[in-house]
Design brief:
- The protein is an all-alpha fold.
- It contains 25 helices and no strands.
- This is HEAT repeat domain-containing protein.
Length: 419
């Protein structure tokens, strides 16, 4: 059974076995990552015999590969503060039970000076979870840790604490450190989110260094602000393709990050900016997201945006991507794809959707195609759908076919459009 299947089935026992016994470090690392992704939410529990925390603690201490240790610590973080403190307690010999948060933060801060980089990483991660600012100075000092993995965890901790006093030190390291640490620092500045933090990101978004520009546009997608939209839209015309594509990914991410009270404004601003952008720079990356991304939020937003900005030269390509997305496993993504297709009539779309429905390719896909036909269809759709509903043996498709026909002036049939 593949790791993907084990993840889908939430097979904690087999994943733990891979983490403990596989001779392949990449498999052990991936098993740790999956175990972290399967950590229960606050209102969920897992069976005691499926609890992987002990295995993750052992891997974080004893695995031969640093990347497996790092992945195990990140996984422990996802199991919550108790799991992290259990690891720190075992490796340091300190009892962290029944200690006040501020005092616990001070004890964890001592771990930042430990000889073992894994303990320093775990201490930084734990401090970020606690969020006490009485150890801010100790964390900031660790931005100069000799181990890059520790510097990354410190940056994440400062992002969680969101204290503006960390901005000067983060800004300095943003120009000095190696790439993966710079990315975490940029994310931290975005999460702190003050005007001073934004200014640092804006400054490097226009830097001569392509790497810095890419880091900036990547981080700006976390801000969820109108100001970030304008900067990212400008980056769509960057000389470097990697910066342009990162900017589009960030714009899509920004739709998810925008606060509820500003989401409509941000959404309208993004559409306005993308409509003014060069079509290849705007449409092609969205199609690529639908084709390659496994992130649900990205796919939803890409499907929603395509129907509002694609026209003329790239409408056919946009239709192709959206038609394939009608079969998406995520119901909301497939609905967005259907609604966008309804906005992209022309280029033989009606004929293609009718052929799709009549091919009986996929129930969910055909349901969404029928919805679109109910929006854009004409005489040809009425004629062929009338025959379809009489001939199909699929009750669900027959019902949705009647619904589409009712909207086209054919049979009268009530029903939910997209369910």
């Amino acid at each position: 059974m593949t790791l993907f299947e084990l993840e889908r089935n939430a097979d904690f026992e087999q994943l733990t076995t891979y983490l403990e016994r596989s001779s392949n470090a990449d498999i052990r690392r991936r098993a740790a990552e999956i175990l972290g992704s399967l950590a229960p939410k606050a209102d969920e529990t897992i069976e005691p015999n499926n609890d992987p925390v002990d295995a993750l603690i052992t891997a974080a201490q004893e695995d031969d590969e640093q990347k497996v240790k790092a992945a195990s610590i990140d996984a422990l973080d996802q199991y919550g503060q108790d799991a992290l403190e259990q690891f720190i307690g075992e490796i340091s010999g300190q009892d962290l039970d029944s200690v006040a948060q501020w005092k616990k933060a001070e004890l964890l801060a001592k771990g930042l000076d430990a000889d073992q980089p894994e303990l320093r990483m775990a201490a930084a991660t734990g401090l970020g979870r606690i969020g006490e600012d009485n150890v801010l100075e100790a964390l900031v000092d660790r931005l100069d840790d000799p181990n890059a993995r520790v510097r990354m965890r410190v940056s994440r901790a400062l992002a969680r604490i969101e204290d503006p006093r960390a901005i000067p030190a983060l800004a300095r390291k943003l120009h000095e450190d190696q790439y993966d640490v710079r990315v975490e620092i940029a994310y931290a500045l975005a999460d702190i989110g003050t005007q001073n933090a934004l200014r640092e990101l804006v400054d490097i978004a226009d830097d001569d260094d392509e790497t810095l520009r890419r880091i900036a546009v990547d981080a700006l997608g976390r801000l969820g602000s109108v100001e970030a939209v304008e900067i990212l839209a400008e980056a769509l015309s960057d000389d470097a393709e990697v910066v342009r594509r990162t900017a589009m990914f960030s714009l899509v991410q920004l739709l998810s990050e925008a606060p509820a009270d500003a989401s409509h404004t941000v959404r309208e601003k993004i559409v306005d900016e993308l409509e003014e952008a060069n079509e290849r720079e705007a449409v092609q990356p969205l199609i690529e997201i639908l084709d390659r991304s496994s992130e649900t939020a990205q796919r939803r937003n890409a499907a929603w945006l395509l129907g509002r900005i694609a026209d003329e030269e790239y409408v056919r390509e946009a239709q192709d991507a959206l038609i394939e997305t009608l079969a998406d496993d995520d119901e909301m993504t497939s609905k967005f794809a259907a609604m966008s297709l309804a906005l992209l009539d022309g280029e033989g779309l009606e004929k293609r959707l009718l052929e799709l429905v009549e091919s009986d390719r996929d129930d969910g896909m055909c349901v969404k195609a029928l919805f679109v036909l109910g929006k854009i269809g004409g005489d040809r759709s009425r004629e062929r759908l009338s025959k379809f509903v009489e001939q199909t043996e699929n009750d669900r498709l027959r019902k949705r076919g009647f619904s589409a026909l009712s909207k086209l002036g054919g049979f009268e049939m009530a029903g939910s459009d997209l369910s």
